Amino acid sequence: MDRHGAAPVGAWPLKRCFLPVVFSSPLFLFVFLPVVFLAYFASGDRWRNAVLLVASLLFYTVSAGGYVLLLFFSIGANYALGRQMERCEDKRRRLVVLTAVAANMIPLFVFKYSGFAALSANSVLGHLGFTNAIPVPAWFLPAGISFFTFQGLAYVIDVYRKETPPCASLSEFALFKSFFPQLVAGPIVRYHNLSGELKSRRHSTILVQEGLVRFGFGLSKKILLADNLGRVADSVFGSPSASLDPSTAWVGIVCYTLQIFFDFSGYSDMAIGLGRVFGLSLPENFNQPYRSASITEFWRRWHMTLSGWFRDYVYFPLGGNRKGAMRTGANLLIVFFLCGLWHGASCTFVIWGFFHGLLLLIERTLKTAFGIQPRGLPGRVLTMVLVMIGWVFFRAHSPGTALEYLKHLGGVAAAQPGLFGPMHYLTANNVTYLVIGTLVALWPERRPATEEQSGIWPAIRPAAAVIVTLLAIVGQAPQSFNPFIYFQF
Length: 489
Fold this sequence. Notes:
Blueprint: H1 26-42, H2 45-64, H3 68-87, H4 90-126, H5 145-160, H6 170-178, H7 180-183, H8 191-199, H9 205-237, H10 246-277, H11 295-301, H12 304-315, H13 325-343, H14 347-370, H15 376-395, H16 399-410, H17 422-425, H18 428-441, H19 449-452, H20 457-476
Helix pairs in contact: 1-2, 2-6, 3-4, 3-5, 3-6, 4-5, 9-10, 9-18, 9-20, 10-15, 10-16, 10-18, 12-13, 13-14, 14-15, 15-16
């Protein structure tokens, strides 16, 4: 299966008898969510956390089968070690936090990176005459392991730094770790974001309405825009390289650029909306990143909870920008190497990460040494082109195919007349999705809440959400299962 489906990494030794549950699936929309909603609001305040916890563990069990034991381990280990840090002396706190970091990282390495590490080692050893010297483990990648691992790491590090007190209730901590809207693909929530609301939160008809409206817009982003544009991108990227002409290659990467944004921001909108319905405030994850005038600005707007995580737990501890230009450059490259690797155990993800790290380093050098800083429309255009070049590596199956695709984008690769040209993909429907997607992606940022109360949009927003949600549900009916891209991470 394509890397942007729900393909496993390797082969799980036991038969998988479960199906993934995603927010855009009929099972979730018409069975799971209504049942949880009714059970939650029918129960008293005392039992609402329990309802959400049971629903979240059921959600993950149906989605991941036996891997729910891994989630149980993550919950238990982080909770126990966090409490242990509160009780032990300062001299032992470092040992406890190192144990906690290992407890989080070892499962992530085993399930996500051990196969990649073995293949890489065998490649090196092969040049020395040792063929397949290291057995390559075969695993299915547990759903959401990168997200709940980083969530656990942030918690134990914050407790170690005494920036947040450890959670006193195992059930509250279990809900924090497993809350189903953000469990599989974020946003990456930190304990202090939810600690107060886990104990006591308010509910109102307005909050429920706002949450459902946000969910509806997110669902429409996924089904109406991401999935339809994704079919074009998949077809272009799946075409024989020799048949690609520059215009068709640009159609493919533009569609993928919009697909990955609407796929992931749509999921984040749905997660944040559901959190609001249940009285939990999940952090924002996107802020119109394709309006950025520089790569630096792009990373302040794209997947904000991940970039904030790397800033606070990797970049700053390495010294940030406080130890000279050379050290700052090295820190940036380390952070974005790890960021690329976080997305997947593949050379293409590593190259994508290094590419962005190098661009940030160039921007910082130009600003510091020459006072040159991209801005305005030229900055936005240049940033968008550079982001799309990076997406080619993110989407491609290998560095070689990515470089070949880039040659076609630049018109420097010989191309034979293919079966399909750009007009095959630019049908009336696809052009409509492209135009609407571009307008939405480049729409000005959300105004402050006080300003949003004026004008006609607040009045028609709920009705618009109902319309696009119905269109999304109707559009979903004839389609096959299409998982979110970030479920693989």
